[in-house]
Specification:
This protein is of the alpha/beta class and 433 residues long. The chain has 3 domains: 128 residues, Rossmann fold, CATH 3.40.50; 161 residues, 2-Layer Sandwich (Dihydrodipicolinate Reductase, domain 2), CATH 3.30.360; 84 residues, 2-Layer Sandwich (Alpha-Beta Plaits), CATH 3.30.70.260. Helix content is 35%, strand content 24%. The strands form 3 sheets. Strands 7, 8, 9, 10, 11, 12, 14, 15, 16 and 18 form a 10-stranded mixed β-sheet that branches. Helix 4 packs parallel to helix 9. The longest helix is centred in the first third of the chain and has 18 residues. The relative contact order is 0.13. The structure holds NADP nicotinamide-adenine-dinucleotide phosphate.
Length: 433
């Protein structure tokens, strides 16, 4: 192709015309020559499920492909942009087809990268083409480039943050309005903040995909989604939010990845964060992330983690990188040199905890609980008994000093068997960040 005045024309094929796809088309229609290195973008073809569905952008003049794989492999596609979603199926098939045809790929698909990132990176590097996914984590807030590029002069020890805006919105609403999880979720669905099927978000799986990707970028290891320990927010009770506040904490869904001498620990949990901590202050649908490097120390970023505009901006930034000819390994190191991801058994992790028990209102219960914990080797840091009106029993809450999770869980098993304890104790972790 001869290069016209003003630089090369890049023909971009966009598969997926939903929230993100429509945002990308809108952006490219408005600013086809946005790339700092010069050149211009034209959309050479689009693909989605339904050709006739009304969309916020006009696609009538664009070549239509029923099959995203055909769009990916089309000789008219210079850059393939995958915005279909899903770890397998058409998204994976189309990305593979594009890479095999030697075309650069830009995707926002965290499930695909978290679950198949290592093999796709190997394919991209074999073909010598970029596979970029800035939009996959924290939407428009640049976390991927920061870890992959700006942090290569450091050794990252840990990353931890709030990576799912839907969960953050629900927890913030529960806390501010005093609503129960199910009611707040229903309202979030009505307002469009939560999907009709919310399990990927509220179950913690979306955050786990994202932290898996960040772990791979931060530690130079292959992404290993299967090793992530995942707990969502479905079981977060309003009473825990209120009691945590009395103890000086806010409950957040925290996704974390730590590098230890034994390997890598990737977890997603509802977590108590001190009220004045930056993560506690990131409310609503915001995302926020701490990165801790050996030399740089701590970095904190915060911003939108989703939405058509912010996510399209991240996709556009990746398209600009392709246009600038940037060549880098897909993760922090070439795919063949990624270290194996050795998972650490979460039972060995050490941290402070919050425990809530529902007990019968009778003398000696607190002493029995304290003794059981002491015998198991768990040391109590603080104790709170609230006069809560509950016919079923009285909640007692305590926080522990640092303890191995295996020891804590064994102690909880023993407490659950005490005659005065009505329910299995509720365990929440307290942030180490
Ligand atoms: N939404 C966000 O704010 C956000 C933020 C960061 C990352 N992401 C990621 O971006 C990707 C897209 O998300 P989204 O919110 O835009 O999803 P979405 O609104 O559900 O859109 C998905 C698009 O894919 C199309 N599609 C589904 N199956 C297809 C198939 N078999 N063949 C061709 N097209 C198919 C759909 O077609 P129809 O329109 O015809 O149904 C739709 O246009 C996902 O990987 C998501 O995780 C989203």
């Amino acid at each position: 192709m001869s290069v016209p005045p003003g630089g090369r024309v890049w023909r971009v094929g966009v598969a997926g015309l939903g929230n993100v796809g429509a945002g990308v088309l809108g952006f490219l229609a408005e600013r086809p020559d946005f790339a700092p290195a010069g050149g211009r973008v034209v959309v050479s073809g689009v693909s989605a499920r339904s050709r006739s569905r009304p969309r916020p952008v006009n696609i009538s003049g664009l070549a239509w492909f029923d099959d995203p794989v055909a769009l990916a492999a089309s000789p008219d596609t210079d850059i393939f942009v995958e915005l279909v979603g899903g770890s397998d199926g058409p998204a994976k098939a189309a990305v593979e087809a594009a890479l095999k045809a030697g075309k650069p790929v830009v995707t926002a698909n965290k499930a695909l990268i978290a679950e198949h990132g290592a093999e796709l990176a190997a394919l991209a590097e074999e073909q010598g083409v970029p596979l970029l996914f800035e939009a996959a984590v924290m939407g428009g807030t640049p976390a991927v480039k920061m870890l992959r590029e700006a942090m290569v002069g450091d050794e990252v020890r840990s990353v931890a943050g709030i990576l799912n805006g839907t969960c953050n919105y629900i927890l913030t609403e529960m806390q501010n309005k005093g609503g129960a999880f199910a009611d707040v979720l229903a309202e979030a669905q009505r307002l469009g903040y939560a999907e009709a099927d919310p399990i990927m978000d509220v179950g913690g799986f979306d955050a786990a995909h994202k932290i898996t990707i960040l772990a791979a970028l931060a530690f130079g290891c292959a992404p290993n989604y299967a090793a992530a320990e995942i707990e969502g927010i479905e079981q977060v009770a309003l009473v825990d939010i209120q009691l945590a506040k009395d103890l000086g904490y806010r409950i957040k869904l925290v996704a974390s990845a730590d590098r230890t001498e034994d390997g890598v620990l990737v977890r997603v949990h509802p977590t108590l964060v001190p009220l004045d901590h930056p993560l506690a202050l990131a409310g609503g649908a915001l995302n926020a992330l701490f990165i801790e490097g050996t030399r740089i120390g701590r970095i904190f970023i915060q911003g939108p983690g989703a939405g058509s505009g912010p996510t399209a901006a991240a996709v556009a930034a990746d398209i600009a990188d392709v246009m600038a000819g940037a060549v880098r390994p897909v993760f922090q190191a070439p795919a063949r040199a990624l270290s194996p991801f050795t998972p650490v058994d979460p039972a060995r992790s050490i941290g402070r905890a919050y425990l809530r028990f529902l007990v019968r209102d009778e003398p000696g219960v607190i002493a029995a609980v304290s003794e059981t914990l002491a015998e198991a080797g768990v040391s109590i840091e603080s104790f709170l008994q609230k006069p809560v009106e509950d016919a079923a029993g009285v909640p007692i809450v305590l926080t522990t000093h640092s303890v191995a999770e295996s020891v804590l869980k064994a102690a909880i098993d023993r407490i659950a068997e005490l005659p005065a304890v009505i329910d299995r104790p509720r365990l929440l972790r307290i942030a180490r960040i």
